[in-house]
Amino acid sequence: DGGITQSPKYLFRKEGQNVTLSCEQNLNHDAMYWYRQDPGQGLRLIYYSQIVNDFQKGDIAEGYSVSREKKESFPLTVTSAQKNPTAFYLCASSIGGFGAEAFFGQGTRLTVV
Amino acid sequence: DQQVKQNSPSLSVQEGRISILNCDYTNSMFDYFLWYKKYPAEGPTFLISISSIKDKNEDGRFTVFLNKSAKHLSLHIVPSQPGDSAVYFCAARFDNYGQNFVFGPGTRLSVLP
User: Fold this and answer.
1) Which of A10, B39, B61, B65 has the highest count of CB atoms within 10 angstroms of its CB?
2) Which residue from B41, B97, B102 is facing A107, i.e. has the nearest CB?
3) Which chain A residues in 79-108 lie under 8 Å from chain B, judged by CB atoms?
4) Which residues pair with B65 in a beta bridge?
5) Nearest Cα to B80, choosing from B111, B36, B47, B57?
6) Cβ A98–B96 below 8 Å, yes or no?
7) In sequence order, what DSSP letters do the residues of A3-69 get, joined into one string?
């Protein structure tokens, strides 16, 4: 079954620690995205990547870092510099071309304790 | 500055009636629009899309209308069912390779039995 997988589903982090959220897709999609959702708010773009070894900052990239060493994988690191990291994080992928839609993973809920 | 707006945070509709969800955008260069449905603690799922060269697209109970001059689109669900109760996100993109998706804040639809 093709799809996009995020892990873990729930993650707890102590203040001051970095944490990495995993995102893997087997859809052969070129483009991958990370969004953040806060209660009562929409999806805000953190980073996106249209091709391996290349990525661009989204609207709220501060305190986050990403890598795209493989087409299938786009991990997101939430660093200690992120002031309000508690949120629901969503990874998505798309073919990146015309008429493309984004396919989403099930999300990771990160809680800072 | 929100480029995609959904001015109704919530909407309640009786089962069997029509649900109309609205979305406005500010950037006239957007040329591809999508609607997503999201349940709590899950990733959004794609519902329907429309290209700017069309003014209507239909898929079963879901129809999306686009009014480019007003920079407005709407999603009609007929007939509404209790399982349609979810948050609906409108999204827009430039239909070129390498462009990301811009999401609205969402509208919570409640379909009452």
Assistant:
1) B65
2) B41
3) 88, 90, 92, 94, 96-99, 101-107
4) B56, B74
5) B111
6) yes
7) -EEEE-SEEEE-TT--EEEEEEE-S--SEEEEEEE-TT--EEEEEEEEETTEEEE-TT-TTEEE--S
Query: Nearest C-alpha of chain B: how many angstroms from A16?
Result: 25
For residue B96, pLDDT beyond 70? no
Distance CA A54, CA A70 (A): 11
| pLDDT mean across residues, chain B | 93
> Which residues from chain A sit within 8 angstroms of residue B98, using beta carbons?
31, 50, 96
Cα gap B107→B84, rounded to integer Å:
12
CB pairs under 8 A between A and B: 63
* Closest CA relative to residue A97, chosen from A26, A47, A30: A30
Asked whether A48 and A56 are in contact (CB, 8 A), the reply is yes
Digit-coded pLDDT (tens) for B39-93: 988 999 999 999 999 999 999 999 999 999 999 999 999 999 999 999 999 999 8
Other Cβ atoms less than 10 A from the Cβ of B39: the count is 12
Query: Mean pLDDT in runs of 10 for chain A (113 residues)?
Result: 89 92 95 90 91 93 97 96 93 82 94 91
Q: Which residue among B34, B43, B97 places its CB closest to the CB of A96? A: B97
